[in-house]
Every structure is written in C-alpha cells, then in structure tokens.
Design brief:
One of its GO terms (molecular function) is dCMP kinase activity. With 229 residues, the protein is α/β, with parallel strands linked by helices. The protein is built from 9 helices and 8 strands. Bound molecules: cytidine-5'-diphosphate (2 copies).
C-alpha cells in the first residue's frame, strides 16, 4: 500500500471499532489511534485529582496543563499522562461510567482533537472514536460508521469482561445505552454518522468479515485514485 490514506471509524460503544481498527491498521501497516483511550485517560486522571465534571473551569485548566503521549503497541496502545502509564486503569467500569461527562467539556475536546489531528498529518492512520469522520478528520479518505444492535454490543462486552469484572449483561446494556445517549446528545461534536461515511452494521458479522470489508474499501479507494491519474 504505497498511497497512504487516513481511515476514520466511528460508532457507538461496543460496536467493535477498536478491535477492527487495530487489525485493519496491521493489515495495511498503518498506525492505529484509539481516541476513546485518550478520553478515558483524561477521565481517570480527573477522578484521581478529585475534579468533578461539573467543575468545568478546573477541568479545562487541568487538561491544558497535562502532557499526553500515545505509544502504539502490539496489542494495546499505551497512554501516558505526565510520563505516567495510565493504561491499566482506563477500562474500569468507574471510568466507563464517567467518561461521557468529561468528554462533553469544550477544553477536553479541543485539546484532544488537536493532538489527534497532529497524529494524522502524515497519513497512514486508522483512527477510531465518535467524531473522527465529522470533526477530527473530515477529509479522511475512507470513513466508516460501525454499528450493531445494543443487545449484541452488550453481549460482546459481557463476554470480554466475564471473569474480570462483576457485572451483569443487563447492567452493561444500561451503561452502553446511557453512554450512547450522552454521546449522541452532547452539543460539541456529538456521535453522528458523517454524510460520506459508509454504514456498516456488524450485528451478524464476525471480526474477520468486518476487517475484510474495510480493507477492501481502502483498496478500492486507492485503486480508484490511481485510475484517475
Ligand atoms: O470502547 P468503548 O466504545 O466503550 O468506548 P471508547 O471508544 O473507549 O470511548 C469512551 C468514551 O469516550 C465515549 O463513550 C465518549 O464519551 C468518549 N469519546 C469521545 O467523546 N470522542 C471520541 N472520539 C472517542 C471517545
Ligand atoms: O471499540 P468498541 O467499543 O467499538 O468495541 P471493541 O472493544 O472493539 O469490541 C467489543 C468486543 O466485541 C470485543 O471483545 C470484540 O472482540 C468483540 N467483537 C465481536 O465479537 N464481533 C465483532 N464483529 C466485533 C467485535
């Protein structure tokens, strides 16, 4: 793949974005950027500092002061804040329950969007999140909006957490539905399908099928551009 493009993958919680985005990036030898991990890292940091999402001016001040680094890895991408690896903490239910409140705050969004755009400047990036195709990388060459039924998404999360966290399927379904509502309903760059994004309903698709579908979209985009020259 010589002609490097950017790939934006958005969609609701548990749709399979991060799993699929990582595999697509591997196949294309691209860099994978998990923007949800960045919002989660900020959330964990604020919770530890006892700064509530209601205290927006304090959140905005803190988020400007900290230094965030992303280190791509084989499996998980690492997130460092002020040099501290916060990755082990960011997938907890506590963080999942609060992240949508912090991610609606203006200063948080502008700071993280800026970092995300910088990472994509040289192209060859697969980035997943909620507002990548609409706001962060509106010029991404390939945009995917990935969904699945809420029942299926909760079940996927449940299977993933089984044995690790004490949680019921019903709790997960509620958490996911609530987070979707907050993410879709916020004022600044809400979760929304970009007009030019391809809608991919993965309810009845396995991971490999989804990966193949996206890689083939990328290939036909690049081939199409070549034939234009
Ligand atoms: O993995 P999961 O789908 O549960 O969530 P995530 O992708 O890790 O994102 C966690 C939260 O971060 C989302 O529910 C959003 O509130 C926020 N987020 C966002 O606002 N914008 C993004 N580009 C990515 C995540
Ligand atoms: O990033 P997002 O929240 O959209 O989802 P994820 O964390 O990538 O996927 C949630 C879970 O669903 C993972 O355990 C995946 O292995 C699984 N999954 C699946 O079973 N079938 C798919 N087509 C996609 C993901």
């Amino acid at each position: 793949f010589n002609d490097r493009i950017n790939v934006a993958i958005d969609g609701p919680a548990g749709a399979g974005k991060s799993t699929v985005a990582r595999l697509v990036a591997q196949k294309l030898s691209y860099i994978y950027v998990d923007t949800g991990a960045m919002y989660r890292a900020i959330t964990w940091w604020m919770l530890r500092e006892n700064i509530t999402p209601e205290d927006q001016s304090q959140v905005n001040r803190k988020v400007q002061d900290l230094v965030m680094e992303l280190i791509p890895g084989e499996d998980l991408q690492k997130v460092l804040i002020n040099g501290e690896d916060v990755t082990p903490h960011i997938r907890s239910l506590e963080v999942s329950g609060q992240v949508s409140q912090y991610s609606g705050i203006e200063g948080v969004r502008s700071r993280l969007s800026h970092l995300q755009r910088q990472m994509a400047l040289r192209k060859g990036v697969v980035m997943d999140g909620r507002d990548i195709g609409t706001t962060v990388l509106p010029d991404a060459e390939v945009k995917i909006f990935m969904t699945a039924s809420v029942e299926e998404r909760a079940l996927r999360r449940f299977n993933e957490l089984r044995g690790k966290e004490q949680v019921t399927l019903q709790q997960l379904e509620q958490d996911i539905a609530r987070r979707d509502r907050l993410d879709e309903g916020r004022e600044i760059s809400p979760l929304r399908r970009a007009e030019d994004a391809i809608l991919l309903d993965t309810t009845f698709m396995d991971i490999q099928q989804v990966v193949e579908a996206i890689v083939s979209h990328c290939r036909s985009h690049v081939d199409g551009e070549r034939n234009h020259l």
